[in-house]
Amino acid sequence: MNTTRFTYLDPAAREFWRDYDQIANDAAAMLRLEAGRHPHDPELIRLVGELSTQSELFRDRWASRDVVFHRSGLKRLHHPVVGDLDLNYQSMELPSEPGLVLNVYTAPAGSPTADALQLLASWAATHDDEFAEPSPTAKHPQ
User: Fold this and answer.
1) Do 74 and 59 fall within a single domain?
2) pLDDT digits (tens, 9 = 90+) for 12-41
3) Domain of 93?
4) Is residue 57 a contact partner of residue 8, using CB atoms and an 8 Å limit?
5) Pair 42, 58 in one domain
């Protein structure tokens, strides 16, 4: 649901998703699918209300009444650090947790996307301390 909120409410989503219109269509259709499965879920009701009041695009897509669940496909995005990524995905329902879906994203070995993901992992490892919580015993400069 965070992806749907990002897609419709964050202006950066249009730059992030290279296939923005398709992602926006799919996000609303998947949300409608979940609403059909769980029509009384208060969190889902709040999300639909939030998106409906803040995004005209969402209102239009929601009104189309499309319902879809993609089990596999390709997500094309633009990462601000490593550039364009083409990620294959597979969605799997977890039998031990009904209603929970695990999405796995992969890139073929040796592809430009695989190289970019390795670069991103290296970049993230060197920037972890920027985002880490300070230790409670760490001394702060005065």
Assistant:
1) no
2) 999 999 999 999 998 999 898 888 888 999
3) 70-123
4) yes
5) yes
pTM: 0.74
Looking at per-residue pLDDT, the higher value among 70 and 16 belongs to 16
Tell me if 108 sits within 8 A of 71, measured CB to CB. Answer: no
Residues in a beta bridge with 87: 75
Look at the alpha carbons of 64, 69, 74, 77 in this order and tell me if their dihedral is positive or negative.
positive
**Count of domains in the chain?**
2
Pairing of strands 83-93, 101-106: antiparallel
Domain for residue 128, yes or no?
Answer: no
pLDDT at 41: 94
